[in-house]
Design goal:
The protein has five helices and seven strands; from the N terminus they run βαβαβββαβαβα. The chain is of the alpha/beta class and 118 residues long. Helix 4 links the parallel strand 6 and strand 7.
């Protein structure tokens, strides 16, 4: 699952992940409300979340993701890495945090690391 309010970045991440033979984006959302509607109906192994969404903070979705799948990996991928977000992220249940400017390989490595083992 990828939750990102910027449509262009959402498309880029979807194309990047879907281009990998071991990855598939099963759900995308532009807001917390959209994400909440998709959590129940999707089998999510890894969630890639933005912090700044139009209706709240991506961290607020983590408890619902964990309730649907306790083993879900959570990667925060955000340009809004003000001190409040990264400091709260581990306590909120995020497994990793990357800036959107991180190299593509770092994003792919994080998703692989957080995903299910083959």
């Amino acid at each position: 699952m990828h939750v990102e309010d910027h449509a262009g970045f959402r498309v880029l991440i979807k194309n990047l992940l879907n281009s990998q033979s071991d990855m598939e984006v099963v759900a995308q959302a532009a807001s917390l409300d959209e994400a909440r509607a998709r959590v129940a109906g999707s089998e999510i192994d890894v969630a890639v979340l933005d912090l700044s969404l139009p209706d709240g903070n991506g961290l607020d979705l983590i408890p619902e993701l964990r309730q649907a799948n306790p083993d879900v990996g959570v990667l925060i991928l955000s340009a809004n890495l003000d001190p409040a977000g990264p400091e709260r992220a581990p306590d909120a249940g995020a497994d990793e945090i990357l800036d959107k400017l991180a190299p593509v390989e770092a994003v792919l490595n994080s998703v692989r690391k957080l995903g299910p083992n083959p």
